[in-house]
Specification:
Elements (H helix, E strand, L loop, with lengths): L2 E5 L5 E4 L15 E4 L1 H8 L1
Antiparallel strand pairs: 1-2, 1-3
Bound molecules: zinc ion.
Amino acid sequence: MKRYFHCTVCDDVHYGENPPEICPTCETMSSYVEVTKDEAEGYFL
Ligand SMILES: [Zn+2]
């Protein structure tokens, strides 16, 4: 099951089974927290 993850540093949103080890946008390690679908869609706006 895929989930949404939000980078707390740069607001990047990742959709997948697991969060990236390193954020591709800000290159911070372990910066992702799991969020709900509604929260993830809010970050896109
Ligand atoms: Zn980031």
